[in-house]
Specification:
255 residues, alpha+beta, Thrombin, subunit H, six-stranded antiparallel β-barrel, 6 strands
Length: 255
């Protein structure tokens, strides 16, 4: 009987030791898992804080970019007014030139009608002198009109270029010649930061593509843009199989 109790006691102690060992192992596993989770949380918190800082910077840069665009619009309006003034001046000079040309023709016709009558020689000489003066005026007016036409053409070209640029910005399309790089990428949040912004032709709301070695990796939508940087979201459905974007990849406008 005593032996039976002794055996039972030994079995109970052995079982208790086994349970305690298993509990200790589970505790250690839980402890390691908790420490790993805490470290991951700290990393995510740091990433989140960095992104908040980047967003604040991008917000301010976007405000600055919007102001720059508004200033550009003001300059464009002023240029249009200058164009209108030059055009009106050109029309006025052309009208004056036409008037002087008509007067010159009239005096030449009068001279032809007078012929070579000796007694009218003084009048003819005066008419010749007047014709010479009118021809000089015509030459001066012609030169001035040519200059105005040149200024009008140059101004019109500048206005068209500015108008085309503003139209492209308002239509939400990046500059066809735009080319920049991926500056950073956060896989956990899916946010891509570009190293170029409006200064290189990146436009908010436009679609761009990521290139590597001459091959397209993915398409992205530009979500925010400032003068010198931008952020974008990857269009997952366009991501090449087995690939992912990375820092240094080239970004150009989508077709």
């Amino acid at each position: 009987m005593a032996n039976t109790f002794g055996i039972l006691a030994a079995l109970i102690l052995a079982f208790s030791a086994f349970v305690a060992h298993k509990n200790k192992e589970e505790f250690e596993k839980q402890k390691l898992a908790t420490e790993a989770e805490s470290a991951r949380k700290d990393r995510n918190q740091k990433t989140f804080e960095d992104l908040i800082t980047d967003i604040d910077v991008l917000t301010q840069e976007k405000i600055d970019a919007n102001k720059e665009r508004d200033d550009f619009q003001v300059k464009l309006d002023e240029q249009i007014k200058v164009n209108d003034t030059i055009l009106a001046d050109s029309k006025s000079k052309q009208s004056e030139l036409d008037s002087v040309t008509a007067s010159l023709k009239e005096k030449k016709d009068t001279l032809v009608e007078l012929g070579e009558i000796k007694e009218l020689a003084p009048k003819i000489e005066r008419l010749k002198s007047s014709i010479t003066e009118l021809e000089d005026q015509v030459a001066i007016l012609t030169a001035g009109n040519s200059r105005l036409n040149g200024e009008k053409t140059s101004s019109a070209n500048s206005s068209k270029s500015a108008s085309d640029e503003l139209s492209r910005i308002n239509s939400g399309k990046s500059d066809p010649a735009m080319k920049t790089k991926i500056r950073s990428y956060d896989p956990s949040l899916g946010i891509v930061t570009l190293s170029g912004g409006m200064s290189v032709g990146v436009i908010g709301g436009s679609k761009v593509k990521v290139m590597r070695g001459g091959e397209k990796i993915a398409d992205m939508n530009v979500t925010a843009v400032s003068a010198n940087s931008a952020t974008a979201d990857i269009i997952r459905a366009t991501l090449a199989e087995g690939e992912n974007v990375s820092v240094g990849d080239t970004v150009v406008p989508a077709e």
